[in-house]
Design a protein that fits this description.
Length: about 375
């Protein structure tokens, strides 16, 4: 006799898989790791970070927002701007060789949508050079450019805003990369409805949705690509698989067209892990152009999930529950890419050593 079936809300539907496949979760990475994209979430001390790093084989940790912190208040991360010296003194100088950082310079203005006013570009370059003198190894620009930042007259700034071009040119002259986050997952620009594959995430974090924004995702990526083409002497790091991991063919076209572009795959292993064959071939072909990055609060479980994606042939597995608490949900099962050792070495640390000035590890 079949028992009555209770209704289950979508958010509570978490079936236990009946398929049995072998698991190979690496305790440590197969080769030394440079985490080339992370942030100082909360108040973790250098010692606490190093404890996790040593447990999983991360030799060097790069804070890409070195002049800000993200303290946790009421389960929400807020932004606090600090002088670059805060991170330099407490992490980089105290533990040389274990930490590095980029600076946001004057782009660290989350609370103020007015960016271009007075002599912004000149001040940004001045503060960038000051932070470089303290040990910064690049410039980080967040997605607010193109989505929120306006000029003094209230006009929305595009990514290819000409008044910012002196900054990108100066970065090229200084020989430092510009890590620039443009747009977000494709589903974040679609209506939050039953057809949106990120529905659960966007219901919990509706501010992450940009449907109806001033510029569409396609316009933002076109602006970014024009800006990159206009600065062939500047290296641009495009995080999150150039924010188009849903379409690796388009990312391949971007890399082929612009030799001054590097990507990282931080916070996008869910996208890569659902297309293991395509992602494997992509990593092999572009093995010299990809950086490792976590981009979430550190834990052994988070790093090991990344290593599992890169190193194993494991099938049909989920993110650890830990990651879901930070707005990342497994909407599908993940599969390992089983990358060759020569690719792993480049992705784990060799590319970062080449791309980030002064970043080196002992192997």
């Amino acid at each position: 006799m079949t028992e009555p079936v209770d209704e289950v809300l979508l958010k509570d539907f978490k079936p236990k898989p009946l398929m049995r496949v072998s698991e190979h979760v690496p305790e440590t990475a197969r080769f030394p790791v440079i985490d080339a994209h992370n942030h100082l979430f909360g108040d973790l001390s250098a010692e606490e970070l190093i404890e996790v790093m040593d447990a999983v084989g991360v030799k060097l940790w790069v804070n890409v927002t070195g002049n800000v912190t993200m303290p946790l208040e009421n389960n929400t991360y807020t932004i606090a701007r600090r002088d670059f010296g805060h991170f330099a003194e407490r992490y980089m100088e105290k533990y040389p060789g274990r930490f590095a950082a980029l600076t946001m310079s004057d782009f660290a203005q989350w609370g103020d949508p007015i960016l271009l006013k007075d002599d912004f570009a000149e001040r940004c370059i001045q503060h960038l050079e000051e932070d470089l003198a303290r040990g910064a190894c690049g410039l980080k620009v967040t997605k607010e450019l193109g989505l929120f930042y306006r000029d003094g007259d209230g006009a929305m700034l595009g990514v290819d805003e000409g008044r910012l071009y002196p900054i990108w040119r100066r970065a090229g002259e200084l020989g430092i990369p510009v890590l620039i986050h443009v747009s977000d997952p494709a589903a974040f620009f679609l209506p939050i409805d039953a057809h949106n594959e990120h529905y659960l995430t966007l219901r919990e974090f509706p501010a992450w949705g940009f449907h109806g924004s001033f510029f569409s995702k396609e316009e933002l990526l076109q602006q970014r690509n024009r800006m990159i083409a206009d600065h062939p002497q500047t290296m641009f790091i495009l995080p999150h698989v150039a924010n188009h991991p849903e379409d690796l063919a388009s990312v391949a076209e971007l890399l082929d067209a612009h030799p001054n572009v590097i990507i990282d795959f931080s916070a996008r292993i869910d996208e890569l892990g659902r297309q293991p064959y395509t992602a494997h071939d992509f990593f092999v072909k572009y093995q010299d152009r990809i950086l490792f990055g976590l981009d979430m609060p550190v834990s052994p479980e988070a790093y090991r999930c990344y290593f599992r994606i890169l190193e194993t042939r494991d099938e049909n597995f989920d993110y650890p529950d830990y990651i879901g608490r930070f707005g990342v949900y497994t909407r599908w099962k993940l599969y390992g890419l089983d990358l060759p050792d020569e690719v792993l070495k480049k992705v784990y640390y060799e590319n970062a050593e080449r791309v980030l000035p002064g970043v080196r590890i002992d192997t």
